[in-house]
């Protein structure tokens, strides 16, 4: 079993009957979603909120009841993946382009569980390009601002067109190599008009499940 599968499936042990569950996006979160599907087949009774169209489609195929975020008062537990996470549990998400919905769902969740393979638990985040979701109305100006600051921006593309998020926005990936002042960086990005959100997640994680070899490491 891969480290991603080990981590994803382990996290599902924290799901109990009656919960509203946030379903993350990406290959590791998908393992959790599939396991939840299995448990539903065996009688588990939950409702779920999906963080992307792709996850909603997978969940529906697995007979997991999906509800709209606005129809629930709170989410009990969300299980999501990440691209990098450090010892302070500051992380980068959005490699799969779902960062906006992922951040919204995380903000409504009482408990956030991240599931990663061991390679993503790093001393210093930033090697993974930081995704910034931007409005198509003003993207070129934001891109130029990043360029002028030497942040090595790259428009994310798919089949030679700009990648479109589920909310109809573009993504600019910043190839920073290292991010030391993540709080300052997050505040600066949040203040740029036209930035919808960015992939820096700070003070989000309650529990980190790391797939490590043939076992898992759980960190609170
Ligand atoms: C999607 C994400 C994913 O959770 C992240 O990219 C990790 O993906 P994977 O589990 O496939 O490595 O943030 O926007």
From TrEMBL:
It catalyses: aldehydo-D-ribose 5-phosphate = D-ribulose 5-phosphate. SUPFAM superfamilies: D-ribose-5-phosphate isomerase (RpiA), lid domain, NagB/RpiA/CoA transferase-like. Its EC number is 5.3.1.6. Transmembrane segments: none annotated. The keyword Iron-sulfur does not apply. One of its GO terms (cellular component) is cytosol. Pathway: Carbohydrate degradation; pentose phosphate pathway; D-ribose 5-phosphate from D-ribulose 5-phosphate (non-oxidative stage): step 1/1. Gene3D superfamilies: 3.30.70.260, 3.40.50.1360. Keywords: Isomerase. It comes from the Bacteria. Catalyzes the reversible conversion of ribose-5-phosphate to ribulose 5-phosphate. Homodimer. Belongs to the ribose 5-phosphate isomerase family. This is Ribose-5-phosphate isomerase A. The gene is rpiA.
């Amino acid at each position: 079993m891969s480290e991603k599968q080990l981590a994803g499936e382990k996290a599902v042990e924290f799901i109990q009957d009656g919960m509203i569950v946030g379903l993350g996006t990406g290959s590791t979160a998908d393992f959790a979603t599939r396991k939840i599907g299995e448990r539903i087949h065996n009688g588990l009774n939950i409702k779920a909120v999906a963080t992307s169209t792709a996850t909603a489609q997978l969940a529906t195929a697995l007979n997991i009841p999906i509800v709209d975020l606005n129809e629930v008062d709170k989410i009990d537990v969300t299980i999501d993946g990440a691209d990098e996470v450090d010892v302070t549990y500051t992380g980068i998400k959005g490699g799969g382009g779902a960062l906006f919905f992922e951040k919204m769902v995380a903000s409504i969740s009482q408990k956030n569980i991240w599931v990663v393979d061991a390679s993503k638990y790093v001393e210093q985040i930033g090697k993974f390009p930081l995704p910034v979701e931007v409005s198509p109305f003003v993207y070129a100006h934001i891109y130029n601002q990043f360029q002028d600051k030497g942040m090595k921006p790259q428009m994310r593309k798919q089949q030679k067109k700009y990648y479109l998020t589920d909310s109809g926005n573009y993504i600019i990936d910043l190839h920073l190599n290292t991010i030391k002042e993540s709080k300052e960086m997050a505040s600066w990005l949040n203040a740029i008009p036209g930035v919808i959100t960015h992939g820096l997640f700070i003070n989000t994680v309650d529990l980190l499940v790391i797939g490590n070899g043939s076992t898992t490491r759980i960190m609170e």
